[in-house]
Amino acid sequence: MVCICTPLTLKFKIMNTQENNKLIAEFMGLSIKEGVCYYTDEDDMFPMGIEVEEPYLPYDDSWDWLMPVVKKCREESNAEDSHWESVYYSLEGCDIDVTYQSVVDFIKWYNEQNY
User: Fold this and answer.
1) Does a structural domain hold residue 8?
2) pLDDT tens digits, 55-72
3) Number of domains in the chain
4) How far apart are CA 49 and CA 28, in angstroms?
């Protein structure tokens, strides 16, 4: 099957990816201010020393950025989490797109459970 992307569907995919990357950043305790990533806490913001071009965060195409998120998903899960299993099994295929989507789904589920 071949997917033909029109400019409108491509724009939607890019916007959706940006929203998902921001969701992941928030899950990881990050925020972006003036093109610099910050860890956030209740009192202040601490710079990480990573400059990014807003709104670009490379969770969707960098294993270096995605794997710490996978680790946090595991730490936040419990034995009964079928959502964690989805992330776990997505790693077997070594496909970043599949793992990325599993992580996004886990975070959405996690946020529903905890907010």
Assistant:
1) no
2) 578 899 999 999 999 999
3) 1
4) 16
